[in-house]
Amino acid sequence: MPKLVSDACAVAAEAAAGRTLTRKEIESLAAQLKRRAKTRKADEKLTVMDRDVLKAAADDQANEELTAAKIEKRNRMLNIIARRRLVEYIGRFGNADEGLEAFMGGVNAPVEGGRLSIDSQSKALQLEYMGGLLAALRRASHGETDLVATFNSGALDRDIARELWALSKGDPPVTDSGPARTIAEAIDQMQERARKRSNMAGTWVHRSPNYIVRQSHHTGRIRRASFEQWRDFILPLLDGPETFKGVTPTSSCGRPITTSLPGGTSPASVRAARG
User: Fold this and answer.
1) Is residue 233 part of a domain?
2) How far apart are CA 137 and CA 205, in angstroms?
3) Parent domain of 165
4) Is 187 in contact with 155 (CB distance < 8 Å)?
């Protein structure tokens, strides 16, 4: 079987990594670089790899791996802190079962923080974001224009979505609707606050161009539909180059998703359960 990576490339990769790499690791890195190169030159078929494109792709890869290492280190520390808080919280109760129940859903017990559960905190955050959005819309309402009522009516949903798309890229207004832009700015402000808070808690979500709003699948409809029906419905709606990053989707693309979404499990957890 011919080698996918030359010996010279392998030596260079090991020198950059500062350690001996297995053939599998080297070929995996090479494949990632080629995918990035394809993404950067999506309109061309690369038969001879352009040196500048490959260098830029390699820089992207190196920066991402460095950032990932820093995030992993930070998250290990956050997990240690969270674990210590949980142990201390549970220790306030007579037994671990009652402590875990209080931590998840709250209990009516004479214990400090007994009702300060994950459930109560998540509801408080939901009220904070929705209250902030409604307050921003009320402040921006002028004269007869009630932006809260306009938002609730759904009449401007399409224009609001277009303005959110423009805001994500830093573009000027793209519709003739002033209310739609104002509502979009208020939504964007709340979404950005939620993103930053999530990152402080341990995630690492970038501000993504072309992002409008979080969406979810309808589990009931997925259960009723066949894989082919779901695939044929969803594929035309996706941004191909951004979603697949130079990888050509196959006819079975997304099959693990349709088996995991109805049950609320991830493809990784499904594979782990199967052993």
Assistant:
1) yes
2) 26
3) 141-201
4) no
